[in-house]
Each structure stands twice: as C-alpha cells, then as structure tokens.
C-alpha cells in the first residue's frame, strides 16, 4: 500500500486534476468499461448511416461488394484501435483522449494542432447529428417547425451533458435499449419472411450504374459515403480523464464495440440484400424502416442513434477543450480548466455549447461536413504514427501491456491517409494545411511542456544513428565544419566579457561548451552562474552546454578535458582562450596551445582592446604569413583555413568587410604574393574585395595598416604570451590569434 501511495504521488502534473479541493475531486464519478467506453463507442458507430444509407450501399455494391466496403472501412478502424490500445497501456493517459495521447507522445504543439481543429469538428458533428435527428423526427411529425426541433434537441443535449457525464452515460443506456428494440423489429421481420430472395438470387456484385446521391458511379464513391460510419472509436477515449481504469477500459471497451458493430453491419447488409430489390435499395433511403416488422421502432432507433452520437460528441469535445486549457494550449486556459465540485468541466461545457449553437445557425453544413471525417482520419493517422515511432525507437520506456505487430500501425496509417484522399482530395489537403497552420502558431507561442514526450527519444535516437554513421569519417569533416567552441574559465565574468564575440563566431549553427574550472566551495556557485549564461546563449539562438572540471590548475583542467572529449562523437573543435582570464590561468596558455596541436584541436586566443573593444564591427583584417619563395597554395605550408572561416562567420553576423594582408621582405616577391592572395580568394569563394601586400618589417607595417575593428593573426606553438600582447599593443585594436586544427578547409 505504501508503494501504491508513492506511485500516485509521483504522477506528473500532466495527469493531475486541478480542482481546488482534493476532497472534492474524490466525489467525481469514475466510469467502468461498459458505461465509459463500450456504450458511447458502440452507439456512435451504430449511427444514422446504418439506418439510412446501408441499403443504398448494398444496392450499388451488391452484397459481397458491401461486405468488402464494410470490412475495408472497419480494418482501418481496427488497426487504429489496436494502436490506440497499445499506446494507452503504456502511458497514464489523463484527460483528453486522443489529444492527450498525441500530446504526450509528440508534444503539445502537435497535440494542439490536432486538438483544436478536431474540437471544432466535434462541434460541427454535434450539429450534424442534431440535423439528422430532425430529419427522423419529421418522418413522424412532418408538420413541426424544423428550427424549433433543432433548438429543442440542442437544449436537451446541453442540459444532460452540463448536468454531468454520469447522466449522459445513463441516458445512453436508455438509447442502447431503444436501438436494441429496433434490431428486434428487424429480426422479427426476417423471421416472418421479409427476406424474399434466396442467397442465389441476391445481387452479389453491384453494377454501380446509379449511385443515387452521387454524380459519378464507382466503388470508391460508395466507400466514401459509408466510411464515416466506422469513425466513432474516439467516443470512449474522449472520456479518458473520467475512467476508473483507462488503461484497461479503453482497449477492452473500444475493441468490443468495434467487433460487435462490425457483426451488426455485416448481418444487416445480408438481411437488407435479401429483403429488397436493387431499385428499392437505390432509390429509397427509408427501405430499412419500411421492411422492418414495426417501423416506428426503427424510426426510434434512428432518433436514438443520432441523439446518442450527438450526446457523446458534446461530452467528449468539452473534455478535449478542458484538457487543452489545462495544458495552456489555448488562451484563458486557467478559466477553461476549472472543475466544479463534482469534477465536471462546466466552463469548457459552456464554451462548447456556444460553439455548437453558433454552428446550428448556419443551417447548412454540407460544405464543411467532410472536415469532420477528415479530422477523425488525421487523428487516426497520428495515433498510428505514435506507435510506429515508439516501436522503431525501441526504447525501454515503451513497454505496452497490449502489444501489436509492427505491421498493424503501418496499415492503420496508410489506410487512414488513403481513405482521406479517396473521400475528398481537396478537403484532405485543406485539413492537413489547417493542422500545419495551427502547429506553426502553437510553435511560436512557446508552450511550456510539463512532461517529457517521445520527441526527446526520437531526437536522441536520430543523433545516435547519425553519430554512428559518421564516426568512421570524423577526421574528415571539412564540408560539415561548424565552429564548436570550448570556453574554459575560472569565473563567469570571463565569458560575460567575451559574450558578444563568442556568439558572433558560433551562431547560429555552431555551439559553445562552457567549461568551468575550479575546486572547493566555489564550484556550486560557478556551476549555477554558468547555467544562466548558457541559457542566455540559447535564447540568442546558439546551442550551449556546461561542464565543470574540479581542479585548481587551469592548464590541466583544459588539457584533461580535451583529452576526455577526444572520444566523443561531437567534440569541440576550437578552444576559446581570452586575456580576460586571471593571470595564473594565462600563464598556462602556451601549454594549452601545445597540447591542442597534439590533439588536433583549433585555438582561438582573444585579446581585447581595453577601450575600443570590437569597435563598429565593420572591418576585419586577416594577416597572412610570408610564404616566400614559392607562394604556392599547395607547397605543404599550413593555410590560414580557420582564420578565414572565423572571419567569414563574423562577416555574416556583423555584415563586415574582410581584407587580406601580408608583409614581404623582398620587393620582387610582391607579384607572387598578390597572385597568391587572388588565387586564394577565388578557390575559397570568399567575398573578399581587398588584398594588400606590404614590404618591410612586420611590426613596422602593423602601425600603418588600414584601420579595422578586429585584426586576426596566426599562432605558432612556442610563441610567448608577451608576443601576443606586443602585437596587440602595436596594432592598437582588438586581436584574435588563431591556430588551425588541421581538419578545416576553406576550399571545401
């Protein structure tokens, strides 16, 4: 018992109710499999299409053709139900049904992009069911005013749903009894001889010569008309937040409802095929009513089917809205997620009622009715996709109690997408575009996710796959090169002083790993402050991470860290050193540079000007080493690859201009040097317009060089710290001294 208590306490916020008083939450009625899942699912599937369109389907397709259409439609539904059963036995689903499943798996943005359109389509579905109820009512009372019927039914539906889900479920018990009586009326008719034709006389395959309600004959047209009958499997899942045991009830109740309804459809198709002529089936939508033993019972079944479908949809849609409010997907979420003392989402129900009443005023939903089916199918597709992703990742966290073969979700996914484009290609595209549009809006809204979704596993697995497939070629990454900086520091002020230049060198595709070096009491504070700086880099569109080396030796900390990172798939390729560091750390720079050369890691030594800093960030000078006497790009001497790549990064982020400069000792070398620089620019494809060749002493030319905001020089192992400081003092600007790792190429 103690373990169970701890387990309940550990449930993430995603699954918690938000009622103000925990004692009040306990009063909420929890439904079992039969009432919460089986009944609403069965009643939604056994809808108006069964009563008023099944005969038409048989008349066009014949008995065997109708059975094939029924089996094809239900196969998509069954595959999706199996996938949903698998995923619901692996997670604690919470409120919202399919929305909750998809959100927990693929994130709130994806869940919301489906949840919002599906919520609206559920409202449209309620209105269509009300209109269907009205048509059945007018069969009995043709003199009644249609709009008054619609409003009366809506008010009754809303009052039942608003009162409580418990009352809605109990009402559905009455309706399932009425539908059962309609089946008895049909069974009695069959027993008394309504089936006039023998099995041999029944038309087995239809000619599709006259499809009645459609302009073009064809198998897929008839399939498109029938398919919505099989799309009611979400009715029970929508009640997930109010089920006593959703992990058990959703799979069991949904699959039993699908199985029983499939048998009913197959049997009814057989009965009507033997009870009416082809002409009657094609032209009389009320043929099932007329051929029954007591027609009023079947009419009552039609009314019950439409009423129960509307009731399940209005209750389920309000739960979807409540769940989206709870997770902050919608504005005013705090208001939408409120529960009353009995645990009912009354605010969400009010909004849902207003939306449904507004759609009723349209009076004609034919233009948007296909959207209802499309959003059901998109939801089906995404549920199957979730299982496919989970199965392919093979993570240990995916341990469903209900396992399905890998082919099942694939069949469900492909079947759902194909069914969409068979039914209506144009509206299918519109539906997907609408989902993507909503996703884009939610993506920009930066919804705070309070739970981990499968995307983390997906990205991790993809990264591992990519790393393993590139591991063999890690020494040759010239085309894929990006500046991944390792920034060692003993105090956070160091990185803050160089924040701008680090960001401009690495962003947006590179990275900055901040390595804190220290020991003792300063480590916790250093780690905390580094994390804040790292978060600032991320907000500025630069990936950043932090680590701590517990040592008092700056040089050993950097070198040991680099040695350890040598085994990593994606290690830093540049060590960023700065003169902003403490003097004791700066003394270790030569040893770090020497070790970096042996480890084949680049070095970037940043020497800031105390007054000018980075100036206007408009001009960059790159100094090229004298390459006399050959001045040949392929003469075996190291090319300034990293210097040029870093300068190009800064040019892009600063919108600056780059100059190439070199100093020669002999005047006769000038033509060769100029040609070398020109060829270098052409081969590297860099946007450099100006090259300068100077004669004489190197240090003398530093003082007369064109003004720049940053001067870049090369590093040679063995140079003393005083050499870098002397050059920076002479040129009188901020400087960078760079050493290649050997794995960059500006020509790639």
Could you list some keywords that capture this structure?
748 residues, alpha/beta, Amino acid/polyamine transporter I, Rossmann fold, 3 domains, disordered N terminus
Net shape: elongated
DSSP helix fraction: 55-70%
Give me the secondary-structure category: alpha/beta
Low-confidence stretches: 1-26
Helix and strand topology:
Blueprint: H1 2-9, H2 22-25, H3 33-45, H4 48-52, H5 54-88, H6 98-106, H7 108-140, H8 146-163, H9 165-191, H10 219-226, H11 234-237, H12 246-275, H13 278-283, H14 287-291, H15 295-326, H16 333-336, H17 346-360, H18 369-393, H19 407-423, H20 425-444, H21 454-470, E1 484-489, H22 492-497, H23 499-506, E2 511-518, H24 522-539, E3 543-550, H25 554-565, E4 574-578, H26 583-586, H27 589-599, E5 602-607, E6 619-624, H28 641-654, E7 657-664, H29 670-684, E8 690-695, H30 698-703, E9 710-714, H31 721-731, E10 734-739
Parallel strand pairs: 1-2, 1-4, 2-3, 4-5, 6-7, 6-9, 7-8, 9-10
Antiparallel strand pairs: 5-10
Summarize the structure.
The chain is α/β, with parallel strands linked by helices and 748 residues long.
Descriptive report:
The model is unreliable at 1-26 (pLDDT under 50). The protein contains 31 helices and ten strands. It has a ten-stranded mixed sheet with strand order 3-2-1-4-5-10-9-6-7-8, sandwiched between helices. By secondary structure, the chain is α/β, with parallel strands linked by helices. The protein folds into three domains: 10-444, Amino acid/polyamine transporter I, CATH 1.20.1740.10; 481-600, Rossmann fold; 608-748, Rossmann fold (3-Layer(aba) Sandwich), CATH 3.40.50. Strand 7, helix 29 (670-684) and strand 8 (690-695) form a beta-alpha-beta unit. The two termini are 65 Å apart.
């Amino acid at each position: 018992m103690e373990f169970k208590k701890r387990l309940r306490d550990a449930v993430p916020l995603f699954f918690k109710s938000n009622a103000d008083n925990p004692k009040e939450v306990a009063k909420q009625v929890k439904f079992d499999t039969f009432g919460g899942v089986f009944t609403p699912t069965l009643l939604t599937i056994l809808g108006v299409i069964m009563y008023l369109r099944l005969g038409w389907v048989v008349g066009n397709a014949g008995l065997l053709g109708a059975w094939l259409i029924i089996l094809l439609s239900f196969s998509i539904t069954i595959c999706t139900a199996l996938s949903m059963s698998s995923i619901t036995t692996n997670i604690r689903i919470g409120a919202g049904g399919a929305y909750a499943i998809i959100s927990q798996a693929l994130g709130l943005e994806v869940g919301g992009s489906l949840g919002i359109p599906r919520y609206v389509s559920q409202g449209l579905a309620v209105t269509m069911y009300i209109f269907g109820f009205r048509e059945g009512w007018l069969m009995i009372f043709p003199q009644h005013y249609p709009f008054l019927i619609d409003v009366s039914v809506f008010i009754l539906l809303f009052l039942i749903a608003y009162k409580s889900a418990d009352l809605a479920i109990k009402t559905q018990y009455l309706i399932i009894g009425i539908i059962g009586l309609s089946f008895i009326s049909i069974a009695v008719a069959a027993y008394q001889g309504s089936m006039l034709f023998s099995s041999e006389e029944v038309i087995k395959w239809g000619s599709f010569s006259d499809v009645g309600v459609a302009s073009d004959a064809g198998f897929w047209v008839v399939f498109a008309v029938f398919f919505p009958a099989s799309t009611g499997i979400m009715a029970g899942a929508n009640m997930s937040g109010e089920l006593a045991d959703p992990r058990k009830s959703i799979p069991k109740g949904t699959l039993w409802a699908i199985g029983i309804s499939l048998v009913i459809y197959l049997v009814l198709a057989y009965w009507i095929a033997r009870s009416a002529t082809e002409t009657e089936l094609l032209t009389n939508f009320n043929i099932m009513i007329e051929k029954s033993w007591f027609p009023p019972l079947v009419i009552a079944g039609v009314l019950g089917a439409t009423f129960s479908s509307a009731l399940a949809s209005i209750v389920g849609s309000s739960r979807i809205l409540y769940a989206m409010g709870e997770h902050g997907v919608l504005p005013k979420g705090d208001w939408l997620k409120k529960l009353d003392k009995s645990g009912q989402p009354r605010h969400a129900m009010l909004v849902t009622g207003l939306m449904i009443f507004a759609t009723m005023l349209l009076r004609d939903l034919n233009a948007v009715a296909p959207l209802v089916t499309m959003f059901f199918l998109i939801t089906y597709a995404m549920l199957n996709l979730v299982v496919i992703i989970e199965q392919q990742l093979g993570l240990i966290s995916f341990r469903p109690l209900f396992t399905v073969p890998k082919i099942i979700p694939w069949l469900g996914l492909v079947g759902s997408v194909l069914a969409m484009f068979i039914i209506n290609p144009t509206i299918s595209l519109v539906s997907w575009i609408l989902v993507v549009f909503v996703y884009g809006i939610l993506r920009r809204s930066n919804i705070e996710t309070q739970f981990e979704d499968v995307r983390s596993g997906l990205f991790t697995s993809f990264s591992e796959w990519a790393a393993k497939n590139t591991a063999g070629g890690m020494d040759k990454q010239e085309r894929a090169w990006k500046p991944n900086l390792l920034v060692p520091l003993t105090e956070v002020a160091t990185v803050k002083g160089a924040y701008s230049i680090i960001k401009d060198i690495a962003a947006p595709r590179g990275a900055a790993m901040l390595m804190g070096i220290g020991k003792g009491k300063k480590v916790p504070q250093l780690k905390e402050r580094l994390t804040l700086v790292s978060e600032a880099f991320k907000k500025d569109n630069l990936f950043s991470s932090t680590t701590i080396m517990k040592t008092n030796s700056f040089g050993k900390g950097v070198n040991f860290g680099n040695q350890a990172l040598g085994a990593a798939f994606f290690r830093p390729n540049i060590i960023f050193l700065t003169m902003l560091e403490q003097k004791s750390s700066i003394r270790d720079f030569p040893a770090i540079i020497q070790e970096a050369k042996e480890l084949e890691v680049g070095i970037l030594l940043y020497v800031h000007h105390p007054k000018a800093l980075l100036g206007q960030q408009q001009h960059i000078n790159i100094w090229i080493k004298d390459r006399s006497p050959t001045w040949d790009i392929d003469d075996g001497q190291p090319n300034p690859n990293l210097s040029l790549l870093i300068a190009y990064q800064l040019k892009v982020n600063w919108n600056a201009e780059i100059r190439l400069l070199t100093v020669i000792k002999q005047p006769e070398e000038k033509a060769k040097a100029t040609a070398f620089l020109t060829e270098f620019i052409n081969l590297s494809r860099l946007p450099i317009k100006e090259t300068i060749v100077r004669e004489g002493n190197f240090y003398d030319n530093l003082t007369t060089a064109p003004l720049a905001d940053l001067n870049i020089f090369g590093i040679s192992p063995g140079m003393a710290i005083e050499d870098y400081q002397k050059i920076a003092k002479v040129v009188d600007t901020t400087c960078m001294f760079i050493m290649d790792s050997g794995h960059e190429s500006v020509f790639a």
